[in-house]
Write a structure and sequence with these properties.
This protein has 169 residues and is an alpha+beta fold. The chain is built from three helices and seven strands, in the order ββαβββαββα. Helix content is 24%, strand content 24%.
Length: 169
């Protein structure tokens, strides 16, 4: 067997059997660095903030919007914990945002109406320690009245309060 074959692999990676090169690698968390672009005279012409690992250029508008959404969600979790006399648990990474003696609360704050994803959030909440899944939907603009809607599965409502609460006179 001859190891001196006339093949050249400049990338130091031989091709695969199918010829596929795979998807480019993406960062799980970017490491942002400022890069300065200079002209021929050595003057700074542009500052670009990009990831040191993958080279992605930072979109400042998108980053600002993401920070605002996260801050709003955390603020709403704190309000709900105080309102329902519970403990905020969303920052621990579990499926619930607030735990009370009776319920596990999942908070979804936004300016649009609810969708299938809210129902999916309610269904995935745990039923531990006798707690009932409860979803709180918040709607409104900052500085204005925030409307909240509590979503509880009807079966859980009947189990908590009995069928008499649903009977009409």
């Amino acid at each position: 067997m001859n190891d001196e074959l006339p093949f050249d692999y400049p990338d130091a990676q031989p091709p695969t059997l199918t010829g596929a090169k795979g998807l480019p690698k993406h960062c799980r968390r970017h490491d942002w660095w400022s890069t300065l672009t200079r002209n021929e005279q050595g003057n700074v012409t542009q500052e670009v903030i990009q990831c040191q690992r993958c080279g992605k250029v930072r979109d400042e508008a998108k980053a600002k919007m993401g920070k605002a959404v996260v801050a709003r969600s955390k603020r709403e979790e704190r309000k709900l914990a105080a309102l329902y006399q519970g403990k905020r648990t969303g920052h621990h990474g579990g499926p619930d945002d607030v735990q009370t003696d009776l319920t596990n609360v999942q908070s979804k704050a936004g300016s649009t109406w609810w969708s299938r994803r809210y129902w999916d959030e309610l269904v995935k909440l745990p039923r531990t320690g006798g707690r009932v899944p409860l979803l709180v939907l918040s709607n409104g603009e900052p500085g204005h009245l925030i409307r909240r809607m509590v979503v509880l599965d009807e079966r859980d409502f009947r189990a908590l309060f009995g069928d008499k609460m649903l009977d009409r006179p």
